[in-house]
Amino acid sequence: MLDGTILLVEDNPDDEELTLRALKKNHITNEVVVAHDGAEAVDYLFGTGAFKGRDTSKIPQVVLLDLKLPKIDGLEVLRRLRADKRTKLLPVVILTSSNEERDRLQGYDLGANSYVRKPVDFVQFTEAVRQLGLYWLLLNERPPELRGA
Amino acid sequence: MAAHSQSDTLLPDTSATPKASKASPWQALRSGQQRLIAIGSLLSIGGLVLLFSAAYRSNTRFLEWNNLVVHTRDVLRTLEDFSSAMKSGQLAAVEYYSNGGEVQVQALAAAQAAGRRALDRVRTLTVDNPKQQRKLEVLAPLADQGFELLHRVIELRQAGKSGPDAMKPVTDDARKISPLLASALADMIGEENRLLEQRSAEAAVTARRTRILQLIGGIFATGMVVGVFLLFLRENSARASAETRLRHANAQLRSTNRELEAFSYSVSHDLRAPLRGIDGFSQALLEDHSAQLDEQGKVYLQRVRTAVQRMGSLIDDLIGLSRIARTQLGREAVDLSQLARTVAEEVRNSDSARTAQFSIAPDLRAEGDPRLLRVVFQNLFGNSYKFTSKRERAQIEFGRTNENGKSAFFIKDNGAGFDPEYSSRLFGAFQRLHAASEFPGTGIGLATVQRIIHLHGGDIWAKGEPGRGATFFFTL
């Protein structure tokens, strides 16, 4: 069941703060869960580790995934999400500094739904978050399986 | 200094990109050792040819002498034939004189004929030897006289005359002729024997010389084959070790390239993150705390943001530049005129408020990487467009021309131009010849263009005057 939360996977506290600020400025009021590394993100989604016992039937509306992460990197997180049938169709937006073609290719190859490069200019960043929110939280029609209950 | 060394690591100098050299085999022989081998080979082959031709000539001479020996033996045998014909004639005459019998008359005639034939043959055989011919002129009449005497013996018996008195004139004549005939014959045989000895000696000498020459030639040729084989072995091992070194260097280069990639990856990722922080929180200050800031404070914050964003584009351009250094160059036929028109359109659309006249020569083509050549046009047209922004009628031209005797493409504008004194610094990374307030930019565009041109094995240079526009020439 979708609970309308946004899972933000971000290790940089500045980026975390700025992303939250950008969401707020765009009046996106959905609950935001922050995972500070790849392992935490995987634990949250699959109810393991620190999140043992979490109701995993509640899955986020969208995952905003950084690529360069401690412990398990973003692409590996994506690979694990796509390998599990509970999160196979979960919308994942790669939100990263990297503009390497290789990362983009691999990201899409592993089943990312979007690839957004974080601009340096905060005004542009806010605009990018606005569009992301608009698209993934409002406009996008979810696959039937995820609409679930 | 730090920034400089960093850019060194980030941007390996590709200006030394080896251009495909078309060395002729003769140029390849420039290295001393190879030249030595070439000269040695030529000398060896020359020596071998000389040796074999000497052996061949010596052998021919041996065969000639050998033929002469055979010839001389032939002459000697024929002279013996004559001698025995003479003897059987004598025998037949004496027998007839004692006992009669027609058989003996026929035998004498046959002996005479054989003697004549033998002398005729000697004449033919010694036709090239005037000395023997002269001796033959002596022998032949004596032989005739000898046979005539024998006929006279037979006639005596036929006439029924016998006894010492009847024989006396014949015996007297025989006593005169016989020694002459014997000595003439001995003379000829002696001469032929002398020739035989001389010719046999010559034949033996030439035979030995031929054998020695053939032996030397054989040894020489074997030596050459062994030498070539050894050279081949050495070359082979030299090549093998060169290949090993090349593989090693290649592996090193690949690993350096991987490191470089990792480096630029982390530059692009990690350097931008703090910039985002600075920009974002400056903006947050402006938005949330502007009440606590006076106007000057707000201006300063705005300048912080401008500086940070400039740093962001510097990083992006640097990454782009280093990416070009790592690019695998693709080569195909590119319609430069078409590419120029497309890029000109993009450039024009980037600022619709301006008007600029692009004139692009048709049907210019070149071999190259279309993606990278597009970057070249984007930068050069972009520059021209930027530096003509203060002109009322901006004119930008692309075409082909002859510069210093070589055909080059050019992009020309009537913009701000530059001081030719600094033209050598145009293509350095971070080099700018105009103040940022006058014309914006990161100073990496032309460095990128130069890198691409060098990757193609081409050259790029520029001409300009302050206030009178700039022209960039390039070859591919």
Helix-strand blueprint:
The complex is a heterodimer of chains A (149) and B (476).
Chain A lengths: L5 E4 L3 H13 L6 E4 L2 H9 L15 E4 L8 H10 L8 E5 L4 H9 L4 E4 L4 H18 L4 H4 L2
Helix pairs in contact in A: 1-5, 2-3
Chain B lengths: L1 H9 L14 H4 L3 H68 L2 H24 L4 H29 L5 H125 L6 H32 L5 E4 H15 L5 E5 L4 E4 L1 H18 L6 E10 L2 E8 L31 H11 L4 E5 L5 E5 L2
Parallel strand pairs in B: 2-4
Antiparallel strand pairs in B: 1-3, 4-5, 5-7, 6-7
Helix pairs in contact in B: 3-4, 3-5, 3-6, 4-5, 5-6, 6-7, 7-10, 8-9, 9-10
Key features of this structure:
heterodimer; A: alpha/beta; B: 476 residues; alpha+beta; five-stranded mixed beta sheet; two-stranded antiparallel ribbon; rod-shaped
Can you put this structure into words, describing what you see?
The complex is a heterodimer of chains A (149) and B (476). The radius of gyration of chain A is 14 Å and the shape is globular. Chain A has helices at residues 13-25, 38-46, 74-83, 101-109, 122-139, 144-147; strands at 6-9, 32-35, 62-65, 92-96, 114-117. Chain A has a five-stranded parallel sheet with strand order 2-1-3-4-5, sandwiched between helices. Chain A is built from six helices and five strands. Chain A is 42% helix and 14% strand. In chain A, helix 1 (13-25) packs across helix 5 (122-139) and helix 2 runs parallel beside helix 3. Chain B is of the alpha+beta class. Helices cover 70% and strands 9% of the residues of chain B. Chain B contains ten helices and seven strands. In chain B, helix 4 (102-125) packs antiparallel against helix 5, helix 8 (336-350) crosses helix 9 and helix 9 runs antiparallel to helix 10 (445-455). In chain B, 26% of the residues are buried. Classes of the chains: A alpha/beta (149), B alpha+beta (476).
